[in-house]
Amino acid sequence: MYVDMPAAQLPDYRSSQVEPDDFDSFWDETIAAARAAASAVVLEPVDSPLATIDVFDVTFSGFDGQPVKAWLRVPKGVTGPLSAVVHYVGYGGGRGHHLENLLWASAGFAHFQMDTRGQGSGWSMGATPDPVGTGPQYPGVMTRGIDSRESYYYRRLFTDAVRAIDTVRELAFIDPARVSVFGQSQGGGIALAVAGLVPDLAAIAPCVPFLCDFPRATVITDAYPYKEIRDFLAVHRDKTEAVAAVLPYFDGVNFARRAQAPALFSASQMDATCPPSTIYGAYNLYAGEKSMSLWQYNGHEGGGIVDEQRAIAFFRTIDGNR
Questions:
Q1: Does residue 176 contact residue 201 with C-beta atoms inside 8 Å?
Q2: Domain containing 158: what range?
Q3: Is residue 2 part of a domain?
Q4: Which of 3, 83, 156, 253 is the most buried if burial means most Cβ atoms within 10 Å?
């Protein structure tokens, strides 16, 4: 069933999220520190049965120089320069098995699939720990370190995601001007954050993005993972104001205000996990060229493979126009 406002009202919706005065300086300092702590990228060929794709096991430096894993899949025998798609995954998942997610490389892109620190056991395997200790949290990562912007989990994850872009652009067979980002759910939210933090991406495709419009998302849906924040505050009643001060630094709404890359969004009218108004909260303020696919009869699966099909065509169009 429909879980949110009618489709006709979505283009006029505006989020109540407030932008912190020091939003840009906070992120500039965080990313600069990660870049200063970076070490050399490690790229190891994977012994694979694939006949048309080469796979590499990648280790790169993320937040605070901490090691982060990724898979790099490229069309076999291609020397470049290639267009690249950096792929961020959904909540609870990791980079998975190297034989999974072969679509992007099969379509001719270099496909860099970043692992998600501290996740990767809910539905897809991960290999990257989150070594930073934090205080009490509700199960999941939504409240990990939520007492402050410095310790919040998504500070580390978003920084990893920016460093993934840096890493891909360092590779000799990648055209650094043709790097796009793709993600679904949490991955879409990460893609949106990266678009606000990296000014010269080729394009982005955030599908049913999570982590948008916290003031509305935390009160409009009973679905997890947003409900992790509500459950945490139901116990820690004295932390409501502190959490409200932290979340604007990690809200897709505020990243969207800064993003300039051409963007292909998607949302679903029956999505209780990421209600469409929360996505439109970011979409309506997105500063770059943009379009939206609104799926009338779908839930959090969104357009599924059709979202990916449209993203492939979109990225190819952007490449052709460069």
A1: no
A2: 7-321
A3: no
A4: 253
The pLDDT score that the predictor gives to residue 154 is 98
pTM: 0.97
C-alpha to C-alpha distance for 36 and 157, rounded to whole angstroms:
17
Q: Which residues of the chain have pLDDT under 50?
A: none
Query: In the chain, how many domains are there?
Result: 1
pLDDT of residue 218: 96
- The answer to whether the CB of 18 falls within 8 A of the CB of 241 is no
Give bridge partners of residue 72 from the DSSP assignment: 56, 112
In a domain, 306, yes or no: yes
How many residues are recorded in the chain?
Answer: 322
Report the SS3 class of residue 294: strand
Question: Among 156, 181, 140, which Cα is nearest to 64's?
Answer: 156
Give the model's pLDDT for residue 299.
Answer: 97
Closest to 78 in 3D by CA, of 107, 58, 35, 98: 107
Q: Flag whether 222 is in a domain.
A: yes
CA dihedral (114, 187, 65, 173) positive or negative = positive
CATH number, position 111: 3.40.50.1820
What DSSP string runs through 92-144? T--S--TTS--HHHHTT-EEEEE--TT--SSSS----------S---SSSTTT
**The pair of three-digit structure tokens given for residue 28, joined into one six-digit string:** 């500039």
Is 91 assigned a ligand-binding role in the annotation?
yes
In this predicted model, what pLDDT tens digit does every residue of 160-173 receive, in sequence order? 999 999 999 999 99
Q: What is the pLDDT at residue 87?
A: 98
Active site residues: 185, 271, 300
Angle, CA 208 vertex, CA 28 and CA 86 arms, to 5°? 50
pLDDT given at position 41 = 97
| Cα–Cα distance, 158 to 211 (Å, whole number) | 11
